[in-house]
Amino acid sequence: QLSNSLAHTDVSKTLHPYTDARAHERQGPLIIDRGKGIYVYDDAGKEYIEGLAGLWSVAVGFDEPRLVAVASAQMAKLPYYHTFSHKAQEPSIRLAEKIVGMTPAPLSRVFFTSSGSEANDTMIKMVWYMNNALGRPKKKKFLARNRAYHGVTVASGSLTGLPNNHTDFDLPIIPVTHLTCPHFYRFAHTGETETEFAARLVAEAEAVILQEGPETVAAFIGEPLMAAGGVMPPPAGYWQGIAALCRKYDILLVADEVICGFGRLGAAFGCEHYDFTPDIMIVSKQLTSSYMPLAAVIFSQKVYDAIADNTAKIGTFGHGFTASGHPVATAVALENLEIIEERDLVGNAARMGRILQTRLGELSEHPLVGEVRGAGLIAGIELVSDKKTRRPFGAAGKLGAMAFVAAQNHGLIVRAIGDTIALCPPLIINEDQVHELVARLSDALDDAAQWRSA
Ligand code: PLP
């Protein structure tokens, strides 16, 4: 029964991303009406802790007046201009300078897009363009990982390593090999230590590079901590091993920081947290706290020079979007990054993250909880039916779906990724709110355990 005409219009006029459309027609939408801090409210006035910060992205909370003020001032002054053919506007120039100043790696250039998917597509084309310009047209292949998430456009969706993103859409269409997902709990062999597991995955990557031919492998892409595939931190030593391989075989290392970037793990960037140096970084989401759509490819001077030298020969880098560097989006991003710095939200993510991870660790004793994992303010709680065998309850995803519904009943929005409950609250969360979030989750797990036994 759909409660109101807005819900009825939604189910009769739209197709929702990542949604079972027929189920949606029956149950209707949860219409979110307004936000305040870490909370959102539905159209009936019910309060929810936004335990996923929207889509892993609203760092500063859901009612930041400074972002509203900056957006409206920029709208009034220059609502739109582009960056094609030598044109520029102040917000995108200032933001590029700000971003380059923040990156821990020696990266010096920025290309703006509107979404993480477009940024990854841009990155692929830049890498290919660069290798063509350098006279090595065979060096085009990518290495990615199973369960990775890099977007949904036909090229970025090819890098994504989730099965339904491929088979349902005839992907991949670019040359890419997906390596073993670096999740210790699920993919380590019996008796293997974390370091041995990491070494095995690095050896697997090297074997693939040698089999394909290093002269054909252009880049390795990975999220520092895999998020949308199930919140899976890498095993110790993994990134150091992968970075060394990339250097050895002249392969570009791309850190997809779309979720990790700007403080999520309690460090400014995920590559800083795991101590490795990429050649290219992809950022989005917390860049604007998702108040405006914006993403960026951040890259080294070496990549830039190869591209720039070639444009001098052929006249142009034939790629770009109407909204590349959009002035309202870049002005909002600049203000958002100022707020993150002024309020030390990266430090807050580290401090609140420690409390969150400790409190979630206590849930390990819960009969449904197989593993609690995470870093900073991102966590995954994997639910199992039997802690020893780590088996799901019936069909995979059933326990996750039950906990998701129970959490919503208790006023907590989470993401269920199969049987893993993902948490990624806004970076402004305080200590009382962390305890409140864990209390609501704990109640939800108790409900799910009761439903399972019923
Ligand atoms: N890369 C990562 C790591 C992501 O998590 C996402 C989205 O969740 C993307 C890329 C794609 O970003 P968008 O949804 O803005 O296209």
From TrEMBL:
Organism domain of life: Bacteria
Needed co-factor(s): pyridoxal 5'-phosphate
This protein's record includes keyword Transferase: yes
Keyword hit for Cytoplasm: no
Lineage: Bacteria, Pseudomonadati, Pseudomonadota, Alphaproteobacteria, Hyphomicrobiales
A single BP term in Gene Ontology: biotin biosynthetic process
Organism for this UniProt entry: Bradyrhizobium sacchari
Pfam entry (one): Aminotran_3
Family: Belongs to the class-III pyridoxal-phosphate-dependent aminotransferase family.
Transmembrane segments: none
Single GO molecular function: adenosylmethionine-8-amino-7-oxononanoate transaminase activity
Keywords in alphabetical order: Aminotransferase, Pyridoxal phosphate, Pyruvate, Transferase
Protein name, as recorded: 4-aminobutyrate--pyruvate transaminase
NCBIfam families: PRK06105.1
